[in-house]
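Bumping with the actual sequence this time:
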Amino acid sequence: MDIRFSGQNLKITAGMKEHLEERLPKFEKYAPRLVEAHVFLKKEKYIFRAEITLAAKDFHAFGAGEAKDNIFAAMDEAYERVEKQLKKFRSKSKGHHTQSAKGSAKIARALGMIETESILPEGHPKILASKSFAPKPMSFEEASLQLEISSEAFLVFVNQDTSKINVIHKRKDGNHGLIEPGF
């Protein structure tokens, strides 16, 4: 992690740098992808102010502190505020996915969306029947236009020429792919 110091109306001493250079790398246990830290120290009349800004790939933290006694008390206050934000961020990101996956399966089971539970090996994705619909008869061009305005990745429709069910899907290259049955 890159640590930068800057000051206003105050000379930054080696003791000030050491005070935070020892403590700031400990934040990497809360957010491992920390890129840089910027410490801004200033003195206004009889008040010392410290601001710590952390930048990570997907998170920014900011803490400010002030003290009348000395700059070290202001730095400690700013450090504690940033630490509190990082702990909160870590607890949110750590428990986010596990609770929603368990909760969504329970909700789906309660609403009757899961018809039968199949016996699949552990860790295998479960098959959830979420909605039923009646495919409409349409042409390829109309299906392509419907897929464009839809947020879904595919569209099931009845081909009006052959009266067979077809699937049109969005490809990674931006085009649409068509799946026709061979029977």
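The tokens above came from a reply further down the thread. The two ends are 61 Å apart (CA to CA).
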